Every structure is written in C-alpha cells, then in structure tokens.
Amino acid sequence: MADAARSTDRLEALDITRKLAAICGTPFARFAGPADEVAGRTARWVAVPGGPHAAAEVLRLAAAHDLTVVPRGAGTKIDWGAAPAQVDIMLDTGRLAGVWHEPRGAAVAEIGAGTPLRAVQATLARTNRRLPVDAPSPGATLGGVLAADESGPLRHRHGSPCAQLVGVRYLDADGELVSVGESGTEALGRATPGSGGGRASGRGPAGGAGGDPGRGGGDAILGRGEVPGLDVARLLCGSQGGLGVLVSATMRVHAVPAGRLWVSRPVWTPLEVHDLVRAVLAADVDPAAVELDLPVPVPLPRRRIPPSHPSVVNRPDHPAVTGRPAAGSLVVLLEGGPADVTERAERLTAVLGAEAIVSHHAPEWWGRYPFAPGDTALRIEVPINDLHAAVYALRDATGGPVPVRGSAGAGTVHAALSGSLPPERVASILTAVRSVLIARRGRCVVVAAPAAVRRAVDLWGELPTLPRLRSAKAHLDPHHRLAPGRLPGGL
Q1: Helices (DSSP H) in 191-251: which residue ranges?
Q2: What DSSP string runs through 392-460?
Q3: Does residue 377 sit in helix, strand or coil?
Q4: Is the pTM of this model over 0.70?
Q5: In whole angstroms, what is the distance from residue 188 CA to residue 207 CA?
Q6: What pLDDT, in 10s, does the model give residues 178-216?
Q7: Residue of 5, 16, 120 lying closest to 73 (CA atoms)
Q8: Are 163 and 200 in contact (CB under 8 A)?
Q9: Rounded Cα gap, residues 447 and 79, in angstroms
C-alpha cells in the first residue's frame, strides 16, 4: 500500500482500490503484496474479476487512469521472458474459468482462460476426450499456456496449443470484448468427432514458451494489412498478455487413446540421437511424441558393480552394466488401439535394437523441463537434422555437458545453464550458440533467467519480424497499456 501511495496520490490510490472492489467484489481487489510480481516487477493492485464484463470494466478503469495491466493465470510462468516496464494492475484470471459446449462426442470445447489445464482434462475425460495439450508447467491455466504457447511432448503430432485453436474471446486494451474465429456453439455445428487429427503444421505466430513473438502466420497477416479471424487469435499466442487479455478459447478435442506405450532406448552422444530420430521417423510407426533426455553424464564407478545389484537392476543404461557413462534416453510415445500400438512397438524395437525397452508408463522425466528455479533456461529450435549440431555447440560453448530435454522429433528442446554463471558468461554462450544456429535456420531463446542475466543478455536473439510485431502492438495496444516491455524490442 505504501508503494502505491508513493507513486500515486494517496486519495487517488484509495479511489482506484474502491473502484476495483466495486467491479470485482471486495474480497477480489486489493493493493498488491511483495509476491505479486512479474519477472521481478511488483504490481500496485491485484484485481480478480468474476467474469468477462467485470474484466472489461477493469481495463476501462485502467484506460481512464492511464494504468498498465498485466494478466496472470496460475503464475507458473510469471517470471519467464522480459520484465514489464511497469505493472499497475495485475489482472488475475482465476475466476474466468469453466468448460462449456462439451457434449459427448463433440470435437471442440470452449474453455475459460483461467481454467487449470488439469481441470480441463478431468472434465473432458468424463466423455472420454482430451485436449492434445500437455504443457509441462504444473498447475498452469489454459490462458497461461496459450499466452506462452507452451508445448509438451504431444507437440510432435499435434503442434503447439495454438494449433488447436478454433476461436477465442479476448479483451482489447480499451476493454472491448472481441470474438474471433468460432465460439464453441458455432464450431459444434461445423466440427465432427475426430476432426483436427494428424500432426499440425503451424505454430502460434506469436508463439513460443517464454514469450517468443513474431513467428509464422501472424507475421504474414500483418504484411497483408489486416488482422482477420483466427490470425488474430493465434497472434495472441506467446504474447504474454501484451496484445490482449484472453477470456476464453475454443479448442479442438480428441478421443482419449485406448492404448499408450513408451519405447525407450539409452543414448550416449548427440550424433547417435540424430541417427535414431531419423530411423524412428522413417519407421512408419506414427509416433505421438519423440522425446530426448540428455542429463549431465554420471562418472564411471571406480569398481564394476554387478548388474544384479539393487542400485542398477532394471537400468540397462547404467555405466556399471554398459561399461560407459550413460548420457540419457530417447523415448517414443505410441498411441492408438491396443493391438495396433503393440504391433507398432514391436516394429519400433526392431529398429532401435536390443537395448530398446517397452513400458506402459512414461519415464519420470517425461514432460518436465531440465531447468530449475534460478537457472538460465534456454529453448533451442532447429531443424531435426541439425539438432545434434545445436547440442554440440552448446557443449562447446559451456565447456562441458549441459542438461537438454525436449521434443527431438520436432526439433524443439530446452537446456539449463547454472544460475551461478555470471551474466557475461551467459552472454558469451548465447553468442556462440546462436552463431552456429543461424546458419542452420535455428534459434536459441532465453525462456527464464536470474534478474541480473535477464538485464544483461538479449533474450530473443535476431528477430527479423520485429517491425511486424511492432505493427501488431500499434494496432492492438497503441497506448502500450498491456504488459508494456514484455515483448521484444521493449514493446
């Protein structure tokens, strides 16, 4: 409260608080506390509107008082990307929740932005359906997943969450409720069960976990001078609330697969991963996901441990068994009918060799990031034929192995640099890795980092689409009231 009163006349600050309480209800509007921050920038007020119209009123109030607004879902990725220049009102979307238009067999569902992804999947599971979205952040809301365009292992077959969009409702900077694409009701009239299947070809144009705007179709639409239909919806993906406040999204849904098997094989070098991924994709087994885990290798034991020892039993990748340090695993997820999945798993194990293992359960690291709070988290995107070169470049730049995990079959992985590395060292690593990737049409983006690193390095690297992104910001938020500074170029 003291911070707000220092930067705004105390009477005006109290007046704004009263107005927020009148809009949202007294329990749902307050002065912000120390924990209400965005990438280290503390908010002044927190508002939790009870519905779209209340959220619109909050934005209109912000416009009237020239205040900035930053949306927040569950806060699982609130520290990702750049810090906003200012956070006046943190608009919590927790009450913009629900799953609608989801009768049995429907191929779409309209979902409130503040709905936890786990709750969405549990609701859809009652009619044997799911979103083909498996973002790694525990507790994440659908709005937060879309705002970061955060993808998990299923990105291999289905593309990013933004590829599942049929329509959205969002609030612009002036508090106008805008609907683009199709609502759940409209889409139900057009969709048929099972539609939208097969691997999606596009990513959200502003997509990329950690705020990586400016890719894909969104750039093209700005080049045409218009922002129609779903192009706008997908432009919001990855924008971290900098272009609009998502209220709800109508998403494609799919039947829950009856059978799932994970086929894993230990790997020791990035080049081996390259060869195995090519073999998997050429094997005609229709993988739902192809994931890689390259932890820092364990040292060889001083004495050979018998394979029957409890510490290594059921671990064919352990150095005591293989005689060489294990670097990680390549794991392929197969989904479909039980008999079909079993037959495909048999064919895949023949391709991967005697070291391949079939399991009914995912490995412990599946769908998890390799970085921890306080680390510098990187996302590397590169054509799959050059993924090994990217990993080698990262190892060369850091002077040793780096934890790498992600979708080897889609050419998108995450890596972790120790949070103890000084900012100038991180900057030199980024420069070296990006110089290798640029010739391979790849990118290295800083997803999250300690504050000192975030201030010292270029989070996004080269972004040729920045002029078009600037045009999008000017079109959708001309007064820079929505999450100012969260987008590249300080937008």
Answers
A1: 217-223, 229-235
A2: HHHHHHHTS---EEEETTTTEEEEEE-TTS-HHHHHHHHHHHHHHHHTTT-EEEEEE--HHHHHHS-SS
A3: strand
A4: yes
A5: 26
A6: 998 765 444 444 443 333 333 333 333 333 434 455 443
A7: 120
A8: yes
A9: 9
